[in-house]
Design a protein that fits this description.
This protein is of the alpha+beta class and about 500 residues long. It has 17 helices and 17 strands. It has a seven-stranded antiparallel beta sheet with strand order 8-9-10-14-13-12-11.
């Protein structure tokens, strides 16, 4: 979590949005006031054009907004050299005069890659963690570059210009707060996705490019299959902001995988292309996995933020979703929890802050002050539509932390869940903060006697270790790691 915002997840997230009447100062947002390209889950690409073209200038203007949306730039010289090597190996027959690409690795656990005109190319560390060799990375990047060379962005712009009604509806229903502006941007671009035919054309061009560059042409089909497994895993385990993922704009049907395999067979025989796995794994070894320290860490049912110095635990059965915008959790009985913070002058009483207009449907008679684990606190009830809310605020110096619990109006569990979460909120000691470390990808060599189970057991800070180990290392249900091969594990060491 980096800032105050209203995160949405299924109907629970929508309920959380109902209780907030306005955003707070310091809230990050994506500026939707211009018609230029906005960062989103969609790979925003247009025709490759000369440096002085208006579209290229617009793309350059979007770079800071993309960094804001995806957690900034991830700096790792070793990793950057690996990615640059892959991009430099790609050869485009129809793009002999293409500009040099400016490659940015985004500090986001979401799995995505996209391109902008003028040579802007982006890939998230989440995608790098999922890939298993240079050929797979080349296949993804060649696909995004193919959208550029095939002029798909021009058609996308025309379609985007026709989607005015959706913006109006979102504005009227949700108001003008920062999260609403972000919803406007993302909604607009979701409606302007590339068509299925454009995706298939980009697949075909990308696979040809990969093969001509000497990489394994079958890498595209492999990564599409990895994405399919990833989608199944995250649908059960919870996830970061799904709208920022590759899957949000790239339909992953079995037919598409089949076509990718067919295109590859037209290029070469299986096993004849270069995968360059060792070079890729060397590049990602030590890369941060999952949440960054700036956003705090999720460890099972616990959320711990070394920067803010706070921690809390959600009840059993709840799944935490930590994004750059806010921390939410959903659990049994359609109950949702949201956590964020705001800067409030110490001279402002918490009771006054609760009634300052940021809570819609507040019940003034329910406000009460109390002490929570040695910290001044206050709470109140609120109601909106068919939902009811417990709003708890806790002061720590000039910072006020907010715990919002939402439940259906008919639920009898609101007080119990809100009380359980509130009682676990605490300020971390300096020793605890110093001991918190991010999870990282570590590449190890399988030794004699080691099994899939023993390798997965070496992972730390993650749930469903065997399933995640299989996913990260592209091992099918019957697959096992061979002695002497390199595999990825997740650990804080």
């Amino acid at each position: 979590m980096k800032s105050v915002s209203v995160a949405r997840r299924h109907s629970f997230g929508a309920a959380l949005a109902l209780v907030f009447a306005a955003g707070l100062s310091g809230c990050q947002m994506i500026d939707a006031s211009t018609g230029a390209f906005m960062p989103s889950s969609n790979p925003v690409t247009v025709d490759s054009v000369s440096r002085g073209n208006r579209l290229a200038r617009q793309a350059g203007q979007q770079h800071p907004r993309i960094l804001q949306t995806y957690g900034g730039e991830y700096s790792d010289p070793k990793l950057e050299r690996m990615v640059a090597k892959v991009v430099g190996s790609l050869t485009f027959e129809d793009q002999n005069t293409a500009p040099a690409y400016r490659i940015t690795i985004l500090n986001s656990p979401n799995v995505n890659a996209f391109a902008l005109p003028g040579g802007y190319l982006y890939v998230t560390r989440g995608l790098l963690a999922l890939a298993n060799d240079s050929a797979e990375l080349a296949a993804v990047l060649a696909h995004e570059m193919a959208h550029v060379t095939a002029n798909h962005g021009i058609e996308r712009q025309r379609k985007e210009a026709e989607e005015k009604l959706a913006n109006k509806v979102v504005t009227e229903v949700l108001g003008q707060d920062a999260e609403t502006q972000s919803a406007l941007v993302r909604g607009k671009l979701r409606l302007a996705q590339f068509s299925r035919n454009q995706e298939l054309e980009a697949d075909r061009i990308g696979i040809k490019t990969v093969a001509n560059s000497g990489y394994d042409a079958f890498a595209a089909a492999r990564f599409l299959q990895a994405m399919d497994s990833y989608q199944g895993f995250r649908s059960v385990s919870g996830a970061t902001d799904a709208s920022l993922d590759f899957l949000a704009s790239h339909p992953n049907a079995p037919r598409r995988i089949e076509l990718a395999q067919r295109h590859a067979r037209e290029m070469e025989q299986p096993g004849s292309g270069n995968r360059d796995r060792d070079s890729f794994l060397t590049g990602i070894d030590g890369m941060i996995y999952g949440d960054s320290p700036e956003e705090g860490f999720v460890r099972g049912r616990d959320f711990l933020h070394p920067g803010l110095g706070v921690a809390f635990r959600v009840p059993d059965g709840f799944i935490i979703d930590n994004s750059a915008k806010a921390v939410t959790a959903v659990g049994p009985g359609d109950i949702a929890i949201r956590f964020d913070g705001a800067t409030v002058p110490e001279s402002t009483p918490l009771t006054q802050y609760l009634t300052s207009g940021w809570v819609a449907g507040l019940e003034p008679g329910s406000i009460r002050e109390f002490t929570l684990n040695g910290r001044p606190a206050a709470k109140a009830r609120a109601a909106a539509d068919n939902w009811k809310f417990d709003v708890t605020v806790i002061r720590s110096g000039g910072q006020v932390y907010r715990l919002l619990t939402a439940a259906p109006a008919t639920s009898t569990e609101l007080d119990a869940v809100a009380g359980d979460v509130g009682q676990t909120f605490r300020i971390l000691s300096s020793t605890e903060r110093a001991a918190l470390k991010p999870l990282r990808i570590r590449v190890i060599t399988v030794q004699p006697g080691e099994t899939l189970g023993s390798l997965a057991a070496r992972m730390k800070g993650v749930d469903r270790k065997v399933e995640l180990f299989r996913l990260l290392n592209a091992l099918g249900p019957g697959g096992t790691p061979s002695v002497g091969t390199k595999v990825k594990i997740i650990t804080d060491e």
